[in-house]
Design brief:
Helix content is about 75%, strand content about 5%. By secondary structure, it is mainly alpha-helical. Strand 1 and strand 2 (about 40-45) form a beta hairpin. The relative contact order is 0.14.
């Protein structure tokens, strides 16, 4: 059953969730080198730069929980409302499916059989007349539903109805953002590390020292290979 459109409040929460998920995913995949942070015109030097993924992960987690609570609440309300509307339309004869019509025909046949049994065993003329009228009305109703059933069999459901495209819509609107939020929270909390500039300088210095040592060893090796005169 298809849920209704999400409210503006829920859409804003989903938008914020996906925005911070995109920032967090980019941060974890691209990586940044941060030495200082400029905030409201002041320069703040980050003493613990590793806290940035944690803070961003907490923001994503907040919007994720908010979206789950609000989204599932709207989903349940919309599902109940859609079910009530379907029942109302069905009882008023505004909507049918092939299985529904077949069930109705079975019920009508059963009622006709009961009326016919009462007609045979009823001694009163008035009761017999009432039963004959009831049987006639049920036969007319049966003809109506048979025509509806023939129409449904002739005009088959579209491809989108067969593959349940409404289920895909529900998944994209509600459940896919939740999965994305959970994935980004995991990579931010457990698999993301932003190196501080001092760390990068140390890494570069170690690499330079290794290159110098390698060049020195190559020079010594070259000197040793020279023939002695």
């Amino acid at each position: 059953m298809e849920i209704g459109n999400l409210s503006d409040e829920t859409k804003k929460i989903r938008k914020s969730l996906l925005l911070f998920c995109a920032i967090g995913f980019s941060l974890s995949q691209i990586g940044l080198s941060i030495g200082k942070i400029s905030l409201f015109g002041s320069v703040l030097y980050a003493s613990n730069i590793a806290a940035i993924p944690i803070v961003l992960g907490l923001i994503v987690l907040y919007y994720l929980v908010s979206f789950i609570v609000v989204g599932l609440h709207e989903y349940s309300n919309s599902y109940r409302k859609s079910r009530e509307e379907y029942i109302t339309q069905f009882t008023e004869g505004k909507t049918y499916t092939e299985s529904d019509v077949q069930l109705l025909l079975t019920i009508i046949d059963r009622e006709i059989s009961e009326f016919q049994f009462q007609l045979k065993n009823s001694p009163l003329l008035d009761d017999r007349n009432k039963l004959q009228i009831a049987i006639s009305e049920k036969n007319q109703e049966k003809i109506k539903y048979k025509r509806i059933l023939d129409f449904l069999k002739t005009h088959d459901a579209s491809l989108f109805e067969k593959i349940k495209i409404d289920i895909l819509k529900n998944f994209v609107d509600l459940f896919l953002p939740v999965l994305i939020g959970i994935y980004v929270c995991v990579i931010l909390f457990f698999f993301t590390h932003i190196p501080y500039n001092n760390e990068l300088d140390g890494i570069k210095e170690n690499k330079n020292n290794e290159i110098i040592k390698t060049d020195s060893l190559k020079g010594i090796s070259h000197e040793l290979r020279k023939p002695v005169k």
